[in-house]
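User: Show me a protein chain along with its predicted structure.
Assistant: Here is one chain, sequence first, then structure tokens.
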Amino acid sequence: MQPQPLPLEEARGDGAENTQWSRPECQTWTATLLLGTCLLYCARVSVPVCTVSLSQDFGWNKKEAGLVLSSFFWGYCLTQVVGGHLGDRIGGEKVILLSACAWGFLTAATPLLAYLSGAHLVFMTFSRILTGLLQGVYFPALTSLLSQKVRESERAFTYSTVGAGSQFGMLVTGAVGSLLLDRYGWPSVFYFSGGLTLLWVCYVYRCLLNRKDLILALGILAQGLPMSRHTKVPWRQLFRKPSVWAAVSSQLSSACSFFVLLSWLPTFFQETFPSSKGWVFNVVPWLVAIPASLFSGFLSDHLINQAAPAGTQQGPSGAQHKWADGTVSPSPPRSGYRTITVRKFMQVMGLGLSSVFALCLGHTSSFCTSVVFASASIGLQTFNHSGISVNIQDLAPSCAGFLFGVANTAGALAGVVGVCLGGYLLETTGSWASMFNLVAAVGSLGLCTFLLFGEAQRVDLSPAHEDL
């Protein structure tokens, strides 16, 4: 009996939704999602960039600032699985649009509501939790969307291009946000990021989405999502595989390391080098990360798809593979490096080498050297986009949103602990080296797990009629 992929959600329609994008459609959506990811991070890092000003205005100490910074992840970890599951069933683009509309409005309204509230610490903590809840659905829904709409041979470059929006968002907020912060105060940073997000939502709604499909999706959400036997996620089948646990562990480590650096790097530079210009350390690392992310995606796809050497025996020309659901895909001849070999190489760069530079960051007293180390660490972390992020799509394309949601939930939970622990270590030891040691330890642990147990073979295939 031949294996078959798990059926896609019936609510997705009669099959039109599940067709892959044409090249022009893929280019348009890639550029749009790149901008969406940029605005996601503009809103996300508004508080880290403004932490010092907020602390001065509201009288927060390090522990209270750490509480506000980490509270984002309290909400972020709660909607990962929900976002991925909704993306698998009603379409990731619809989930992204609805969540962006909500977080854009909340971000733009934060300064006004903060000043109206007497309990500033409580309100900002609650606001960040809510922002985390709304943004938590984004990347699982994005993973679901790309796994269904983008060809496997182009998936790493597309994901890394869209993922570069996170660094581009850091760059925009670091440059424009720093200028707005210096000239007009911290509220202007929130107005800027929230307003641009709402404009992006209007563009996607008017130009790219089918309004009837969006209304239908809203109706499905309002009525609830009944779980049929054929659309259940195979929990037992997925989590019996060591490769799934390796993916979850690696995603946990990469997310935790990134979140800790994202939250504390601005404060590190402002306190260690108080006379330095904010736009330098808020811009340069993310300026380096953008081409690094694009290069990692190009390199990954090139290593997998490069032409076989002359004289190498290849598979039959025109061979095709037909899945049990009726879809037919070409089976290209085996060439280049094995997929899992490339994924592991990307993780060596994204978790291993980046951890080395993070470790060095805690043992230098030079501003220029610190900027170089921070840029190298952040830039190399973008290789995770072409490693573990795409590996999750390799393992389970039919329920990639759900699986990424589980993995990113673990990462968000680790982010909560990591950011809080970073604040605690700074308060008790007074040394930034202790926090960067934490980042290096977490990254090394995730890398070792993935190198030992990581695979790229599909695990969402089940024998026909098997009751999962």
